[in-house]
Design goal:
mainly beta; Deoxyuridine 5'-Triphosphate Nucleotidohydrolase, Chain A; 5-stranded antiparallel sheet; 4-stranded antiparallel sheet; globular
Length: 151
């Protein structure tokens, strides 16, 4: 399946020595992210966090990033989410995709090999040139920050 911008090829390599596992895949035709399966076991007690390996490395095309995002079902049912959400995988990274999970739930949570633990969304990245200036263009909002528009 391709996006409106056309297909993007992401090369995936299974790491040597890892047990057989499912390849990251879209759960439905309309899914934005590939489900990432765990390749190792980890028990997270309430309040604990830890990194879970997927057993895969990826090669993204230049101009793209991969975002590691939580799975809503894990958060809703168990209080388990991605700690650094979204985690960013840069196009020049070649190591294992690892997912940093945290257990906000009240019970211990066990990650087992093959469990879908996160989603991977591939997105284009806009490179910018930074222009240091003495003043910025004013707007009606100005410096209004957190909560400035009310509830």
């Amino acid at each position: 399946m391709s996006s409106a911008a056309g297909p993007v090829t992401v090369r995936l390599r299974a790491m040597p020595g890892r047990p057989e596992r499912a390849v990251p895949a879209y759960a439905t035709a309309g899914a934005a992210g590939l489900d990432l399966p765990a390749a190792e076991r980890l028990v997270l007690d309430p309040g604990d966090h830890g990194a879970v390996g997927t057993g895969f490395e990826i090669e993204l095309p230049l101009g793209y990033e991969a975002q590691v995002r939580p799975r809503s079902g894990l958060a809703a049912r168990h209080g388990v989410t991605v700690l650094n959400s979204p985690g960013t995988i840069d196009a020049d990274y070649r190591g294992e995709i690892r997912v940093l999970l945290i257990n906000h739930g009240r019970e211990s949570f066990e990650v087992r090999p093959g469990d879908r633990i996160a989603q991977l969304v591939v997105a284009p990245v806009c490179r910018v040139e930074v222009a240091v200036v003495d003043a910025l263009t004013p707007t009606p909002r100005g410096r209004g920050g957190f909560g400035h528009t009310g509830v």
